[in-house]
Amino acid sequence: MKGIKSKKICYFMSYSFLEHTADVKFRADGATIEEMFVSAVEALNDVIRGDIEILGQIEKPFVIEGKDRVSLLYEFLEWFLVELDSEDFLVSKIKEIKVEKVSGAEPNVESFRVSGVVTGDKAENYKFTNDVKAVTFSEMYVKEDEGKFVCQVVLDV
Amino acid sequence: MDLKRINDFEWGVGDSGKIFASEALIEEIKGDDSLDQVSNVARLPGIIGKSLAMPDIHRGYGFPIGGVAAFDLETGVISPGGVGYDINCSVRLLKTNLKKGDLIGREKELVHSLARCVPSGVGVRGAVKLDKKKLDEVLVGGAQWAVDAGYGLAEDWKHIEDGGKLAGAMPEAVSVKAKGRGMNQLGTLGAGNHFLDVLIVDEVFDDEVARVFGLELGQVVILIHCGSRGLGHQVASDYIKLMGDVARRDDREQMIDDRGEVMDRELVNAPIKSELGKKYFGAMCAAANFAFANKQIISHFVRENLKHYFPSLKMEVVYDICHNIAKVESHFVDGKKKDVLVMRKGATRAFGPGREEICEDYRKVGQPVLLPGSMGTPSYVLVGTNEAMKKSWGSCAHGAGRVMSRSEAHRNLSFDEAKKNMEELGIFVEAGGKKGMIEEAPGSYKDVDEVVRVCNNVGLGRKVVRLSPKLVVIG
Prior knowledge:
The complex is a heterodimer. By secondary structure, chain A is α+β, with helices and mostly antiparallel strands. Helices cover 23% and strands 46% of the residues of chain A. Chain A has one domain: Archease, Possible Chaperone, Chain: A, domain 1. Chain B is an alpha+beta fold. Chain B contains 14 helices and 19 strands. In chain B, strands 7, 8, 9, 11, 15, 16, 18 and 19 form an eight-stranded mixed sheet that branches. The longest helix of chain B is centred in the middle third of the chain and has 35 residues, at 275-309. Chain A binds chain B through residues 17, 19-24, 48, 50, 67, 71, 74, 78, 81-82, 84-86, 88, 90, 123-124, 126-131, 133-138, 140, 154, 156-157, and chain B through 31-32, 58-61, 65, 85-86, 120-123, 125, 177, 180-185, 190-192, 229-230, 233-234, 236-237, 240-241, 244-245, 264-266, 402-408, 431-433, 435-436, 475.
């Protein structure tokens, strides 16, 4: 993608699902914050598509901002839900990704940005039924733990 | 959490919360965080009386599912977490002139046909084509817009809560993102716990009220559960973020717990009379109207579909009630009539006899209260009571309430077992995928008979008829 120095993704995704009475809770991690973000998208995608493989026929750039790392993750995951409902776009893989601190709208206030390229396909080419209504802030965190970035997310399904 | 037994069906949560539940249900309720959530709601500014929970309570976001609370219009707050992500996720009951025998031998054909006539699943587009202007009309007109557009009969909306059209909708308060999500989804069922069931009235508890509702033994009825789809979900997300920003900026004290930490970001809120509070209310009403229109269009598809099999079919709306909603209602507070904001999250209105909000046909007896079970257990129709007006701001349980996590359901049950269990019960299921069949199996839910027993004994709603599932379509 023009103008963005992004990392090519090549590593093992890491996420696990945890108990939740009504919805879906997962924990995802990565050696870098970018890897953790990709793991979180993989977890979200796992809920939506299950075992179905999504082809990477279409490339889409993304630039998303958030006030802090938690808000950024929330906005990032929500972007995929909006793309699915509005543009019929299903993610296959994150091809490039970069997370950085940027100047916020207000002076002396930093915010965060995630940008990159995702590949995917039209949802109408697949039959699946696992709706995710929303990303939630419930029990959500992003933290550095023993040299890894770890996040926890609950999805309303 | 300090839980005190008040009597056989009422439990105190600290000094400021109350749960309506039996001994058996309370043991299950203790197993998740929902008691803390009842307690958190009690701390919101302007709450009147206690933070309440219905017998089907389980863990939610902000409010527990099954949470009900009333707020002073001057000093109180409104919270998207008191309504939920699926705004006006709701249930509609339709009655038919068909009898149990009409289905026999045709079950597979019928369930398959019903599943095909209503788009369901993810990324599925509805048959209704909208542009921005028409979508705004839907957000204002709700089910009445759908009827005017040719989806259904003129009398359909008369038996819907608020006539299927909430006043106060503000399409301009709904974001472009939310509208984009809803644009292609009108007339779709969705997935997860949304369903379309064909059931039989298999027991009548109250002949007189059943007659008023037009229900009788052996009758075929249809129950539809769905909501405001991506549009409503995005309205909730948008306002949780907006209110979070304002709360952070204004250092709103009610967001902070005893340890000085943010209590629950999902319980973020705004004063009812603030600009942001009013905007959320307007956007929520708009999303609720989208849900009403959605269910009206689905009902139309179902009616047209069944006419192919039963040309003399008559299918009428018994009632359609909101599960996730905030409403300004008049209630008695300290012996005086007062307008308050009632938030019901996974709870239904259950107004008793005489309330002017109830359609004329039912006003004398009270409103129908629809309480669905799971795909393999009975559903119930109750009637609202004066007791509910006194005890629960005229509210009742909304269903069986989940008790088992989805992952545990997968550990306990295979798809083949789930399917076999339904077949043994004589229930024909068409599911969009294997996951839904396992996760929505009866064992994932509380005992609906026990939930109804509590509602009936406390007086939140009185039993009218029981419905037994025959054909089940899940999204």
